[in-house]
Amino acid sequence: MKQVQLGGLTVSAQGLGCMGMSSVYGDADWDESTATIRRAVDLGVTHIDTANAYGQGHNEVLVGRAVAGRRDHVTLATKAGMDFTTARGKVVINNHPDHIKAAADASLLRLGTDHIDLYYLHRVDPEVPLEESIGAMADLVTEGKVRHLGLSEVTGEQLRTAHAVHPIAAVQSEYSLWTRDPETTVADAARELGVGLVAYSPLGRGFLTGTVDASSLAANDGRRRLARFTEEAATANQAVAEAVRKIAEVKGVTAGQIAIAWVVAQGERLGTPVVPIPGTKRVKWLEQNAAALDVELTPDDLAALDALAAQVVGARY
To answer: Per its UniProt record, what PANTHER family does this chain match (predicted)?
Structure first.
């Protein structure tokens, strides 16, 4: 698979988001998830994305065991800044330097590795100066525990503040045909600073594939709480999914592949690499997603797809 640069970090042009293997999107299977991660590596999808908060540490253990023996062939990205040890039954934002450093040690143990290739601040804590949080992460780089730093869901101003403390390789944000926020919130700063964009949920949390029936989601599927997946909104948003499907049908590919190809194509327009990390817990969907990098979109395709965001019903959260 093609390789791209996120700041000074080389990664595969598509990554694998592993959150759903441990949380949010209903039940998952350890063996099937492990097989999916290993198949990803076989296909060259070597940028593996996890976080300490996914499944309260479960996901890092899963990823670590899945890549055991192949650690040198993958780029591991994980995150800190979410505290699930409060015993209050929920995850809270915690960017205190001591917490970040302790979280890194715990992540290294769960992942079974001596270094993290890309370490993200999962969310910005308004109670802690960003400079202090990034300073703690920079210490981890100095200590050899982390190779590169990233931020998740930040503004351009926050990116500039962090980058002034230590170079930032990547910003991870939700980005897809129906979620375009990074274009106005952080893309300009990323381009100016040479920071790459990592796009999570490039498939619109699965909706853009045309295979998700919002009315039949499992009771423990987090999408049931999202505005775009309510009965009324989901019915209206079928028009968006159908438009993607029609373009896919003409090209003889899947709707999901069109959605991912659109995200990748935005790198040229935004002036910085965009690396999608579609999440899946099944080999079948992984293989389809990986093949999206071979899909070519014409200017007419891109124009038609660009217009879809304006038709989306429902807020992001």
So the answer is: AFLATOXIN B1 ALDEHYDE REDUCTASE (PTHR43625), ALDO-KETO REDUCTASE YAKC [NADP(+)] (PTHR43625:SF40)
Residue with tokens 């194509």: 265
Q: Which two tokens stand for residue 150?
A: 């990233």
Q: What is the pTM of this model?
A: 0.94
Amino acid identity at 119 = Y
pLDDT in tens, 144-190: 999 999 999 999 999 999 999 999 999 999 999 999 999 999 999 99
Q: Which residues are catalytic?
A: 54
Beta strand 196-200 with 274-276: parallel, antiparallel or unpaired?
A: parallel
The residue assigned the tokens 């890309």 is 118
| Residue 294 main-chain phi, psi, to 5 deg | -95, -5
Domains of the chain: 3-203+257-297 (3.20.20.100)
Closest CA to 79 of 141, 136, 123, 122: 122
pLDDT tens sequence across 219-250: 888 888 888 999 999 999 999 999 999 999 99
Residue 226 structure tokens? 């999202």
